[in-house]
User: Fold this.
Amino acid sequence: MKFVLDADQRDFAASLDALLSSSETVAVARSWADGDSAPGLRLWARLAEQGVLSLATDATPVELAVAFEALGRYAVPGPWVESAAYLPVALGHEVEGVATVALPPHVPYALDADVADQVYVGDSLATEVGDLVGSVDRTRRLFSVAGEGRSDDAAFDLAVLATSAQLLGAGERILADSVTYVKQRKQFGREIGSYQAIKHALADVRIALDFARPLVLGAALGEVPASAAKVAAGDAAYLASRTGLQVHGAIGYTQEFDLSLWITKVRALVTAWGTPAYHRARLLDELVG
Amino acid sequence: MDLTLSESELAFQAEARAWLEANVPAEPLPSMDTADGFVAHQEWEKRLSDARWSVVSWPTAYSGREASLVEWVVFEEEYYRAGAPGRVSQNGIFLLAPIVFDHGTQEQQDRFLPTMATGEKIWAQCWSEPEAGSDLASLRSTAQRDDERGGWVLNGQKTWSSRASFAHWGFGLFRSDPQAARHHGLTYFLFPLDADGITVRPIAQLDGEAGFAEVFFEDVFVPDSDVLGAPGDGWRVAMSTAGNERGLSLRSPGRFCAAADRLIDLYRSTPDPAYADGVVDAWTKAQAYRLYTWGTVTRLADGGEMGAAGSVNKVFWSELDIALHETALDLLGPEAEVESRWLDGYTFSLSGPIYAGTNEIQRNIVAERILGLPREVRK
Assistant:
């Protein structure tokens, strides 16, 4: 019984962190939002070299969760959940290049279909890709698609787990940036982080994330359903985003300020791959039987 | 990373489960905060102790099993899953005993631990004072040196002492050096609650039971042999207790997992979709707490320390406990006001955010010690 990441898993997390922290991911995400996918695809290739695309077939869900937490922490754009979690399991093999998938009703649009080499609906290729639909997260380029394909429960759960881990990473990033900010920003002659109202709000975020993490890792080990991880990580990350915005004040409300990338991403991921209501209902069914 | 128990841990679990199944009283015991209930709980403690289940993590010499931290959590999970009674001895076993093991003399260990394990002597924590709640360092009850008799003379008043209405012994901090700065000059004392000069006045709680009491000290003599740790070192000694109380030892995950399972049973019998989310969230958070605890156990087993994580823990379990019980009362509808196990649990849960250091204090600790935010300017 050891419920912490082992040395290999920590090394993997550290290597992804090293790669991403030197990759100007904010600039990559902003280009992606503006329709320039070249920097994003170069980053995609480097992450693929690190094995991120083969985690679903060659590693365990714990490594997958480790990778997606890093993707969330650095706001890495692209259809990673689709290519690295859902499709490899649904198709039975690792995907080549960039792939994406729609899975109505829970995944109604195909993310980043304009840059994907293959676009699926369920386990079949899409017959048609429609127009771009705007997402609250400008780095998520959504497209309506036509086609018929079967969905895969195990693949869906892995995608839910990956999304949960991404939420956790995004929430951690918002908290870290918020803590840094409130230690610098002064009002009435002292750092706003010394005010109890600010402290308690950020402490609540710390607590929510601390208790979402074991559910994400527990879901990766099969101890709890992936839906439990999604509900908790979604709630915690959303609390982080609301609190993060509040403690930043108006600067946080601007697109120019990088925090906006994570605030909008969290909002999108809260309902991506199953809304909180859907996952709670699914859990209730399982528990009440 | 894995959550599988070893062969020996599984065997320990099976033994605990079998004994509890055979021995847990079929009917819940009366409240431990009544005279009858207190005695009934003491008898249960004795039964646990006779089978060496009362203090599983203690050395065998003191009727423990030298259980590892993992085994302790396993036992607690089984204990609550079996619906076993709350521990009337918990202040002694979980709060005082670790301090006696760490700071007590051999003589004190031999004198106090055996009757604590059997439930023969129940301990009360005499911590708070009327003017010192969360600001424990401001306490004013005094201890004056008496060289002639070889001890100390205690004066003052303690309040909100859980179990003190019926307990036999108390432990608490007294100011032994009025010249020293706030955190210094405090000494940790052990004293029989029927000592000359001690008056215990029970205080009825929200539920009407005398769950806690005020304790008055009027020239109470305590010999040097009942001082725990060095005189003047009481704050440091006490702080190791506070960590235990907030953290792992008092609120084992088994409590919340068992209550969440009962909540699901309740929902099955009175399903009301309006409260479905509350049921799901209570279950999910109880699982989060269980898994979080395994993470803590792993870190502690690898030589880590509880530290400020105990404060993260405390806010989470205390709020979970209330939310879980509120959901149960919601499901019970108009029946919720009628006396029941759920109502008892609800009333008790309300104290969670207040005792063991209020949640406001815990959030300050999380913000300052974990997030590294600046200390509040206090004038």
